[in-house]
């Protein structure tokens, strides 16, 4: 059941996060929403009865990684100019949150008439003070994940993360102070006021010392670890040991993790490779952490908290935002800091929940737990849903969300948006520039025909052009074929656009209309009857009909000549051509097409050989030499430059390399349907994603 829960949390978190990204919401919001949907509030798939506490250990792992990551951002050299700002803002926003929550809760109780049997004024004051102390805490996890997602960096980001780290130390310290004070005013037996307060300082000091020791140990270990794998394993082991030791000693693992990261990043050597190594391990842990956190958020807590829950939530964020504005003004910080940094402090979760558990577990305070728990959980629910978006907004307004800025700049510099992509793939987006190469001279008598099936008016001109180029190379004539239903009326100007294009290139055109219920069988019949040397087909445009895969499969399986599929995208350019291959056999298949294109004028052609990323440099060099030798041995010479690219993701590699080319030519070996189902087709996958015009070559399979 644990494995199933693990899978459901990952899948749900990932899926809902992708939906949220479509609406420009942070991924962490999607993770939390996913948890709400599959938790007790939603479909109740993940709950305490089904998995118990079996997944809770992922929470401690995630919190240690999160706190360690925050420590990385507390580099003194970078914070030097913001120290005054950080101190003043941290103090003011903590006081602001405490005062606002205390006053708002106490006044709400007074004016709404909320009453508990047997309670007196000092009990309501105690309740308000405890809620105010819990209100100081901020959730570092959501803020840090948003910072990483938008690649934020700069003085605003550094100040925000420093204040988040300080916030939780202040919350733990203030909570100890408030507990001691509450015990005194309520007359509960317990330790002396000064002892409880002092004990809080001591525990914070112990937590920081544990973190400092862990950071120094990591620094020593890093000197003897070379590979990324070793750093990830050794670093994770030490950090988790620190987390478990903090839990065993009743210390704060959050503060210990922050201290460990702080020590490591501020050492003279500043070896931060372990942060990068752990980054590759963190994503699934974060998805589990936030999705699991979402399963603990119960909408029913909003109703149970009543108006007091809403007052607590609004008072807390108002106090923090107002406190930040006041602290920024006192410190003379930039206006953007005072205006927006408070929005990054909205999230609240782990520390606050831990504090209400302490209240419930303390016999002297347990009577307040029944009211505090639903109120704080309501605030956590609202702040965790809204907090990531407000943090993202704040970073964007500070102009330090570099991922968002890069995205806007790319779109402004010609990057194709999703709307543009759909347009350029559609009939309205396909364009064909007039033929500007020299006139081609046909061979008479011809050596046969190159058949092209043209049905869509947006692509017939382009198909006619490619068919004519290939026909010229093969000393044939282009032949336009239309398949119509038997008995259907044939328009008088059926081949007008095709004929106009072919004539502009200096060639005559042959045409044929075949009555057949099946497009595939009609094309096969035309190819066989006319002994065609090649078939050129057009990849379907969006919304232009279905069944292309069946037609292509039937034609490719039943003709003995090459089949070329043209996928149009926007304005057709053929001056710069990219030829991605994964083997010498691939190159042999596409080379005749490459030579045909090269015959009509000057081109810049790049052969991109995709190799596995773990290949040695000597292997890559040997492969490049082999390819250059093969090209030099060909009878038909093509000025083809060779580039060897080691990659872990072929499709992404082709997409990136193709940015500077107008046409991509790839081979797609004819395979049986079952083999294609299991192993796929690189060319066909690229065709669906690439934002360039493509030629996909299906060469005939030689019979054994």
Descriptive report:
- With 704 residues, the chain is of the alpha/beta class.
- The chain has 3 domains: 2-410, Up-down Bundle (Na+/H+ antiporter like fold), CATH 1.20.1530; 449-538 and 550-561, HUPs (Rossmann fold); 576-698, HUPs (Rossmann fold, 3-Layer(aba) Sandwich), CATH 3.40.50.620.
- The protein has 29 helices and 10 strands.
- A 10-stranded mixed sheet has the order 3-2-1-4-5-10-9-6-7-8, with helices on both faces.
- It is elongated, with a radius of gyration of 34 Å.
- The model has no long low-confidence stretch (mean pLDDT 84).
Please give a quick description of this structure.
This protein has 704 residues and is an alpha/beta fold. The chain contains 29 helices and ten strands.
Summary keywords:
Rossmann fold; Na+/H+ antiporter like fold; 29 helices; 704 residues; 10-stranded mixed sheet; alpha/beta; 9% strand; 3 domains
SSE map:
Blueprint: H1 2-22, H2 27-38, H3 48-51, H4 57-72, H5 76-79, H6 83-112, H7 121-135, H8 140-149, H9 155-185, H10 193-222, H11 228-248, H12 253-266, H13 273-279, H14 282-295, H15 300-331, H16 335-340, H17 350-361, H18 366-397, H19 402-412, H20 418-425, E1 449-453, H21 460-474, E2 477-484, H22 496-504, E3 510-515, H23 519-530, E4 534-538, H24 548-558, E5 563-567, E6 576-581, H25 584-598, E7 604-612, H26 617-633, E8 640-647, H27 650-657, E9 663-667, H28 673-679, H29 682-689, E10 693-698
Parallel strand pairs: 1-2, 1-4, 2-3, 4-5, 6-7, 6-9, 7-8, 9-10
Antiparallel strand pairs: 5-10
């Amino acid at each position: 059941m644990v494995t199933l829960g693990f899978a459901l949390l990952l899948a749900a978190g990932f899926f809902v996060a992708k939906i949220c990204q479509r609406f420009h919401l942070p991924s962490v919001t999607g993770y939390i929403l996913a948890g709400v949907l599959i938790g007790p509030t939603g479909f109740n798939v993940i709950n305490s009865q089904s998995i118990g506490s079996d997944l809770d250990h992922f929470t401690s792992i995630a919190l240690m990684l999160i706190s360690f990551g925050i420590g990385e951002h507390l580099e003194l050299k970078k914070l030097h100019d913001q120290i005054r700002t950080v101190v003043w803002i941290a103090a003011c926003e903590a006081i602001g949150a405490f005062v606002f929550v205390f006053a708002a809760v106490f006044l709400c109780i007074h004016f709404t008439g909320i009453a508990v049997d047997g309670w007196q004024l000092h009990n309501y004051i105690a309740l308000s003070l405890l809620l105010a102390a819990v209100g100081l805490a901020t959730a570092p996890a959501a803020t840090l994940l948003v910072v990483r997602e938008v690649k934020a960096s700069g003085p605003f980001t550094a100040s925000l993360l420093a204040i988040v780290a300080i916030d939780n130390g202040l919350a733990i310290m203030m909570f100890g102070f408030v507990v001691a004070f509450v015990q005194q005013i309520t007359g509960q037996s317990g330790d002396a006021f000064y002892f409880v307060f002092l004990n809080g300082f001591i525990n914070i000091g112990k937590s920081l010392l544990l973190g400092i020791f862990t950071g120094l140990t990591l620094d020593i270990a890093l000197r003897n670890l070379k590979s990324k794998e070793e750093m990830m394993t050794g670093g994770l082991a030490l950090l988790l040991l620190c987390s478990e030791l903090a839990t065993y000693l009743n210390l704060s693992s959050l503060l210990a993790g922050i201290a460990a990261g702080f020590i490591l990043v501020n050492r003279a050597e500043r070896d931060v490779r372990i942060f990068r190594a752990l980054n590759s391990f963190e994503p699934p842990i974060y998805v589990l952490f936030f999705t699991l956190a979402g399963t603990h958020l119960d909408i029913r807590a909003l109703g149970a908290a009543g108006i007091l829950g809403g007052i607590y939530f609004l008072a807390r964020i108002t106090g923090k935002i107002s406190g930040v504005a006041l602290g920024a003004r006192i410190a003379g910080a930039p206006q953007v800091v005072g205006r927006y940094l408070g929005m990054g402090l909205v999230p609240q979760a782990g520390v606050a929940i831990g504090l209400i558990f302490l209240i419930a577990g303390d016999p002297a305070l347990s009577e307040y737990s029944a009211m505090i728990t639903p109120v704080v959980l309501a605030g956590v629910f609202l702040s965790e849903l809204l907090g990531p978006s407000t943090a993202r907004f704040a970073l964007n307004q500070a102009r330090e969300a570099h991922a968002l800025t890069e995205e806007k700049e790319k779109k402004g510099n010609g990057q194709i948006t999703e709307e543009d992509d759909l347009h350029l793939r559609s009939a309205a987006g396909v364009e064909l520039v007039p033929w500007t190469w020299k006139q081609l001279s046909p061979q008479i008598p011809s050596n046969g025909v190159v058949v092209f099936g043209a049905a869509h008016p947006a692509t017939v001109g382009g198909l006619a052009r490619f068919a004519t180029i290939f026909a010229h190379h093969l000393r044939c004539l282009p032949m336009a074929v239309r398949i119509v239903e038997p008995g259907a009326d044939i328009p008088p100007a059926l081949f007008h656009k095709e004929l106009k294009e072919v004539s502009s290139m200096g060639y005559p055109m042959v045409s044929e209309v075949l009555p057949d219920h099946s497009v595939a069988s009609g094309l096969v019949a035309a190819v066989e009857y006319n002994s065609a040397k090649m078939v050129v087909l057009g990849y379907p445009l969006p919304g232009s009909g279905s069944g292309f895969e069946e037609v292509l499969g039937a034609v490719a399986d039943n003709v003995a000549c090459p089949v070329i599929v043209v996928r149009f995208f926007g304005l057709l350019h053929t001056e710069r051509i990219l030829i991605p291959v994964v083997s010498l056999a691939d190159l042999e298949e596409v080379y005749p097409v490459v030579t045909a294109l090269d015959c009509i004028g000057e081109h810049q052609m790049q052969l991109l050989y995709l190799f596995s990323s773990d290949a040695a440099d000597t292997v890559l060099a040997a492969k490049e030499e082999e390819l250059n030798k093969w090209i030099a041995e060909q009878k038909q010479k093509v000025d083809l430059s060779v580039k060897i690219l080691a990659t872990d993701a072929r499709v992404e590699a082709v997409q990136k390399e193709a940015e500077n080319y107008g046409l991509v030519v790839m081979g797609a070996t004819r395979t049986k349907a079952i083999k294609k189902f299991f192993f796929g087709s690189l060319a066909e996958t690229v065709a669906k994603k690439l934002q360039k015009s493509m030629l996909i070559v299906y060469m005939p399979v030689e019979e054994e």
